[in-house]
Amino acid sequence: MTTNTAYGAVKRPEKSSSPWAIARRKFLRNKLAMISTVFLGIVILLSLLAPVLAPYLSPIPDITKVNIGKMSIPPNDEYLLGTDKSGRDVMTRLLYGGRISLLVGASATAIVVILGTIVGSVAGFFGGAVDSLLMRFTDFVLNFPFLVFVIVLNTILYGIVDGLWVLILVIGLLSWGGVARIVRSKVLSERENEYVLAAISIGTPPAKIIIKHLLPNVLSTIIVQATLLFASLIVAETGLSYLGFGVPEETPSWGNMLAFANEPDVLQGKPWMWMPPALAVTFTILSINFIGEGLKDALNPKSQR
Amino acid sequence: MTTKELTEQGNTQKERENLLEVKNLKTYYPIHGGFFKRVVGNVKAVDDISFTIKKGETMGLVGESGCGKSTTGRTILRLIKPTGGQIIFDGEDITRISGTKLRKARQDFQMVFQDPYASLNPMQMVGDIISEPIKNFERRDKKELVEYVKSLLVRVGLPEAAYYKYAHEFSGGQRQRIGIARALALNPKLIIADEPVSALDVSVQSQVLNLLKDLQEEFGLTYLFIAHDLSVVKHMSDTIGVMYLGNLVEVASNKDLYSEPLHPYTQALISAIPEPDPKLRKERIVLQGDVPSPANPPTGCPFHTRCPMAQEICSQEKPPLKEVRPGHHVACVLY
Ligand SMILES: Nc1ncnc2c1ncn2[C@@H]1O[C@H](COP(=O)(O)OP(=O)(O)OP(=O)(O)O)[C@@H](O)[C@H]1O
Ligand code: SF4
Ligand SMILES: [Mg+2]
Questions:
Q1: Nearest-by-Cβ selection for B118 from A13, A195, A202
Q2: Can you spell out the DSSP letters for B97-166?
Q3: Where is the ABC transporter domain (chain B) (predicted)?
Q4: Residue A153 belongs to what domain range?
Q5: Fewer CB within 10 Å of terminal CB in chain B, N or C?
């Protein structure tokens, strides 16, 4: 039984068969998801490089200064995307706006995913009283009136944290309930597998069981949730700013640009003021959703390679 | 190690020490119901069973699906909370220990699980699966640990290269070998094997059973071997316990149980084993009716609803398990 193996001769194989490596190979073969990834990468890169790029793309790379003489210029050779009704360059604001919208989306998503995962996995793993307590708290948070929280947090944090981060915190602290519920139910079903019992019986401590056994097995669900959240939180930023509850007015974001264009004559006659942010939001969200679909497919062990 | 071997040789077969004593063990699963999820009843999965296993021996535990075999095994290993009774392992009462003390105690008793697919974490490399128990208790040099784990893999009949693979790349039988290596890693005294071959192809079943036998000799292991099939247990066990509806109805040595089954339920089970020799073939006892629900077990003898020998008293009093011949215990009013 032990004859045909040579000691020490066996090295780690080149092509890993780990479930993650298999998922990566599947994802790389998904065209739509790959195109979306490249597109999203470009959007992120352009946003990050806004301060570097703006001076090359526009004669007025400033985002806040009002220029009385240059109001509402349609796109031309000089102002590639025109100017808005305060005489600010739309291209510049679009680049800077992307930074804010993506920052709000990504940071709030990070908060939501981390809180939701912790609460959901602890509740699901321990069950019983811990579970009921945490889930009751989750329901409470899910039903908490959003605007009250914005106002309260704004008052508490006034002058300490800038308005943008208040928005991120509010979205993050109020939106983790859904993720917590999904993670909990996934952990509950995953916990029934005998490998969890095996981990207990070989003396693995509870925290390590959650981190090393349960989370890797629910991570695919979490990743897919995170992409969907990222998209919807960018929309939330846009929506809230549009309604005037979001990013402070002087900071450009895609939502703010849309809000600022919310006048009948602009909407009808001056599309260059709102089309760029509207298209940016739409395509960014579409690409994130395609990436999410691709991940879902790649991480599903049952789908074909 | 050497002293252990010496003492084992010093003991004659008859006076081996008990490694495991189970006394009046009960495990009930609460049934929640109604508006407020109150406990409205209990599934009496294990209802007052007692037995002992001597060092280096194998006790087989048989019974139909749902009779409480897994629950018994898991309760003994403290993976499920016992409702009552006592578990004495190697002279120490482990029924109520908890926390770090329990975690430490786990080094000495391990389990091989029923489902070769669900019992291995699909996201873990096989090498990590087998190293984990060791890492939980000691700090070992990394290279040395890798070598040790590879030697374990070879010992259970897998190539060293299995170290770098994942569970999904193996067949059921190979996965079960990985599970056995994990259980072996800490050099335990007791291994509870919960139907380790029932999910495997018949062709690989005997290979895995032989591996378990070889390992027992080599490592001086004690087994509680669970199966729903008497023929598998016969091959493996020194003593055999027969379970029915959460109760142990008969315990005897392997030889006695097959040559002289006393309990009507055991007799029915044995008559159902296919006998190739027509001269030895006996009439098959076919049991009527279904196994009652453990949530609502019958009064008196748990078997009386299906017993061909049932008498009036059987539905009134539950017969205790008693030693009717040397080493032969049975729970039935007939004896
Ligand atoms: N977690 C649980 N909650 C409630 N009831 C349970 C639970 N686990 C098992 N049971 C019930 O307890 C009884 C005994 O189950 P157990 O799994 O111990 O049986 P078993 O003899 O191992 O069966 P099998 O041969 O199918 O593995 C069954 O009636 C089962 O439905
Ligand atoms: S006690 Fe009665 S019902 Fe139970 S096995 Fe014996 S004869 Fe049958
Ligand atoms: Mg079972």
A1: A195
A2: --HHHHHHHGGGEEEE-S-TTTTS-TTSBHHHHHHHHHHHH----HHHHHHHHHHHHHHTT--GGGGGSB
A3: 20-270
A4: 20-54+88-303
A5: N
So what's the ipTM on this one? 0.89
Question: A221: which chain B residues are within 8 Å (Cβ-Cβ)?
Answer: none
CB contact under 8 A, B106 and A201: yes
Does B264 contact ligand 2 (Cβ within 6 A)? yes
**B147 contact residues in A (CB cutoff 8 A):** 7-8
- Domain total for chain A? 1
Enumerate residues with CB within 5 Å of ligand 3 (an ion). Answer: B 70
For B110, the closest chain A residue by CA position comes to A201
pLDDT digits (tens), chain B, 335 positions: 445 554 555 444 446 789 999 999 999 999 987 667 788 889 999 999 999 999 999 999 999 999 999 999 999 999 999 999 999 999 999 999 999 999 999 999 999 999 999 999 999 999 999 999 999 999 999 999 999 999 999 999 999 999 999 999 999 999 999 999 999 999 999 999 999 999 999 989 999 999 999 999 999 999 999 999 888 899 899 999 999 999 999 999 999 999 999 999 999 999 888 777 777 777 788 888 888 999 999 999 999 999 999 999 999 989 999 999 999 999 999 98
Residues of chain A with pLDDT under 50: 1-8, 304-305
Question: Does residue B309 have its Cβ closer than 6 Å to ligand 2?
Answer: yes
| A199 and B CB contact within 8 Å | yes
Please report residues of B whose CB lies closer than 8 A to that of A13. Answer: 161, 164-165
Q: Would you say residue A211 lies in a domain?
A: yes
A11 in any annotated domain: no
User: Does B123 sit within 8 Å of A19, measured CB to CB?
Assistant: yes
Q: Which helix (H) or strand (E) holds A278?
A: helix A275-299
Q: Which of A180, A223, A156, A174 is nearest to A19 (CA)?
A: A223
**Domain-located, residue A186:** yes
| CA–CA min distance B157, chain A (Å) | 6
> Is residue B317 helix, strand or coil?
coil
> How far apart are alpha carbons A51 and A45 in whole angstroms?
12
Q: What CATH number does residue A102 fall under?
A: 1.10.3720.10
Of A17, A197, A202, the CB nearest to B136: A202
Look up the pTM and report it: 0.85
Helices (H) and strands (E) in chain B, counts: 10, 12
Please indicate whether residue B45, judged by its CB atom, sits closer than 6 Å to ligand 1.
yes
H helices, E strands: number in chain A: 14, 0
List of domains in chain B: 4-237 (3.40.50.300), 250-335 (no CATH)
Q: Which residue(s) pair with B111 in the sheet? A: B192
Q: Is residue A2 part of a domain?
A: no
Q: Does residue B174 line the site of ligand 1, with CB under 6 A? A: no
